[in-house]
Amino acid sequence: MVNHYPEGFLWGGAVAANQCEGAYLEDGKGLSIQDVTPKGGLGVITPEPTEDNMKLVGIDFYHRYKEDIKLFAEMGFKVFRTSIAWSRIFPNGDDAIPNEKGLKFYDDLFDECLKYHIEPLVTVSHYETPLNLAKKYDGWRDRRLIGFYENYVRTIFTRYQDKVKYWLTFNEINSIIHAPFMSGGVMTEKEKLEMTDLYQAIHHELVASALATKIGHEIMPHAKIGCMVLGMPVYPLTPNPDDMIKTLERDRENLLFSDVQVRGKYPAYAKRLFKERNIKIKMELGDEEILKNTVDFVSFSYYMSICESADPTKKAGKGNLMGGIPNPYLKESEWGWQIDPKGLRYILNTLYDRYEKPLFIVENGLGAVDKLVEDENGNKTVIDDYRIKYLNDHLVQVAEAIEDGVELMGYTTWGCIDLVSASTAELKKRYGFIYVDRNDDGSGTLKRYKKKSFHWYKEVIATNGKSLVE
Question: Which residues are the active-site ones (predicted)?
């Protein structure tokens, strides 16, 4: 097997504040959009937080982060991706003065990481727009959010400039097309949104991302600031040329977001897209200049590939945020996500060929129902060979991509410790190397247990990938 992971490769894991921290009103935190979606980002919005919302407690990372980071250090993490909850820093999003207790929490969290020589990789906005901004302004549809976001990034960049070297501006920014509330805090129902409204919100986010990149480079010249997209290869269902064209169009729908953030302008194909969908974006004077502030690297999540067809009778698969037709050659997870390790090599090559900028895989993993059992020594664990196989097979393909010439900074598995699912708000959909004793009915001790995959990943990191099996 080709296996040349570079020296200094950043191995680690990833979480999001809203899915693990809990403490949803503690120490001055305001409400976020996640606090009113008890069934997940694609479910109903409640007027106020309800007890059945698992995210209100999460896995209590807010109070247990020292214990958890110690476990990450035991695995040998070089990097830990997390997010800052915007409403911990500015409870309403449009406040003039930040919440000091919120700022102090992340000071302590990053210090704990650095104590173990773990680099924080921080997402500025990860599906947790302050609820007030959603209610008062309809989220990113309102241009004023750019100013509130700018105030937020200036605050955190200034505060953490000596602690955080790696930043991501928005999580899966392209997901707003399919999940406007979860991704962009847009309260207007998706079915009632005009395409112009949606792409205006997208434009505001893209301007904000470029502005954050500019500000970040000014405040922290040594830092690396990246974009983050939902990465998903699109294959034609058949060699029919109509399917090829449909695939091209679907690919571009996703790539538009990284094209703007990496190239600093809207791509030529956007003109036809906007014309045919009757999308009329209002650009302010100076927007085009701001967009020229391009990112240092491209990060992405990867869970699956999809197929596309011009045949309207072909139906999209279940459980997939971005739609897409199932591939007849692939198996799927318990949640209907198709498992395609070679698709990861494919998208790594595609993105690197397109941009020739360093890449970073910041989410990848298998959500599954895990069973806590006793091992031969009487210790509780999870025998998650299925997760080990999934990650091993994907990492083998990552090694192939590196051999292909792809410049890759690092790899962080999603949900390195069990957390609440973003799409469905379940805890039974587990991704972690560490089992958290909490159930979907809220019961459990919150105690942590090492799964079999914990020890497997520790070996992968220790050998810099040489322990992987083809």
Answer: 363 (nucleophile)
